[in-house]
Model the fold of this input.
Amino acid sequence: MPVVFFHAGFEWFSGGYVGVDVFFVISGYLITLFIVTETIGGTFSLKKFYERRIRRIFPALFLVVLVCVPFSWFWMLPDEWTAFSKSLVSVPMLVSNMQFLREAGYFEVANEYKPLLHTWSIAVEEQYYVGFPIILLVMWRLGKNWLLGTVVSITVASIAIAEWGSHNYPNEAYYSLPTRGWELMLGAIISLCQVFWRIPNNVTLGSQIATIVGLSLIGYSVFCFDENTRFPGLHALVPTVGTALIIIFATQNTWVHKILSCKLLVGIGLISYGVYLWHYPLLVFGRLGTLDDQNWYLTTSLIIGSFVLAYLSWKYVELPFRDRSKLSRKTIYVFGATVSLLIVGFGLFASLHVKQLPESLAWFDGTIPLNVSNMVDSDGQACGSKVPSKACFFEPKDNNPTIAILGDSQARALSESLYAVAVPQGYGLLDLTKGGCPFLLNLQLFVSHKPKDKCDPKYQMERLLRLKQMNNVVVVIHSALPTYIYGSGINQERGVRPYRPYYMSKNSETTVIERESEIHDSLSNTIKKVLAFNHKVIIVDPVPTNPWNPVKRLVLIDKYGLSDSFKDTLEFMKYPYQPLLKRQRQAKKIIKAITDQNQHRVARIDPLLLFCNSQLENYCTSIGPENIFYTDSDHLSLDGGQLISNQVLDIIKGWHN
Done:
């Protein structure tokens, strides 16, 4: 239940993701107990074990995957459909954790729009059970000391890797078996100790206290952990040790045992696998298919729906497939292999055929913008994120200046528009943009409080050196400064781990106030260095960030026939100006102070004047009567960027006249 409420975005359950860790411990305990018990009785076989795993995991999983296909096709944008198609390949192969790890990049589809994301934990669990029974059987022949020593050693090593990984490679640590395996093995250790040493199960005051402590540890992690908690690693010991205490000491007649054995919780336990399978796709499609995706009535209804579907799939799918009298082992193996191949085959086919957006909307006949790159270098390679010495450069004509644009992915989007608007007019263009890397000298990019080489002071100096080598240059600086001050985007993904604090600073784990001061000093120093090269500078304030993906929202409005005019559509696309201004206030204060100090050589463009209060008072919007200004929530389309590019050229012409 905690993980369901976490994914639903209920703030009280900020650490609900630990429900997966609790499950891993329980799973490791029960499966190891089953293997050891049958091994002692001489009835265990790997064939029978894997048959049971197929009967337990695949039928309901395949049902959910297949149900997701038509809804994904109906509601997803092309890039989302392509990502979903890839997950159709990885889920049946039980490697979806690796797939979603590869998709954890800066420009990838948001996790909250991936209906099969939650299958990563199933993949980790099944990868564990591919090898663990074999290790157990081999060590069993060497004796219980060898067996227990091996399991404990692997557990300790896995915890150490998890702790190191959570500091240095948080995404890899979150999704990988080597950093999660210890949780399953903790359950296995409890099981082995119970079998080998017959732990007493009588009720004592100590056992009562131990179970209450265990329940408290789980509750603490559910309600007190959040997206900033480094995980997994030593923090994961809180819920897992709590689970271990309950498994060991919650014997019959203890208070905690009586609570956990009530009919309601037992019933939920029976359908818990189905609830886990169904809840996340329902929540994702609730976000994909509605305009008000933060409607708590809808969210609550979807959670209830996941329980209903879980019960139905348990009764009519899970139970029949577990009945050996109805389905033989051969039938189960054939079923698993056949359906897996069909889903994988369809996924491969679908991933190679790009889904097309509608050619036009009811009120708009132009091209719906996608995040595509038209700028290429002399070798035909897309511009952006190159080392400064090899950055895309288009020669100016007729003694026109070169526009050098520097910044993160927002600058990269603007660069496309400058290429479309300025280069045909004879201006040169130098693209020194890089996703997630604003132009701030002497500052370091930190992700999850760890420095990233892709945007360090050395890289910034390489950018500066490239500018020093140029003459007759106007430098355009643009980035999502509030992100690097506050350490997160304006729309943090709801109920999705891993979250990665993302900021620019001199040191890790600085406060917002400290980062404001550092970014002010850095930008001021950066401008001073650039001006020393006799260049002029245009600073473009951060663009407004939409609370949704405008393209997705427009397609839904059109799909549902909610509007056939620009005026009506505008009502669906507006969002309040004041909250946006509040978030940008500190960044604007920094930029204004710097431009005021260098009025004759530094100019400023404020996108809020273009996209806010221009069509509706006190509101911002991402569309015009003949244009769609964004490709996603915070990256401009060619048309949106053209509005800023025209102002850039007006400023340059004013300087040169």
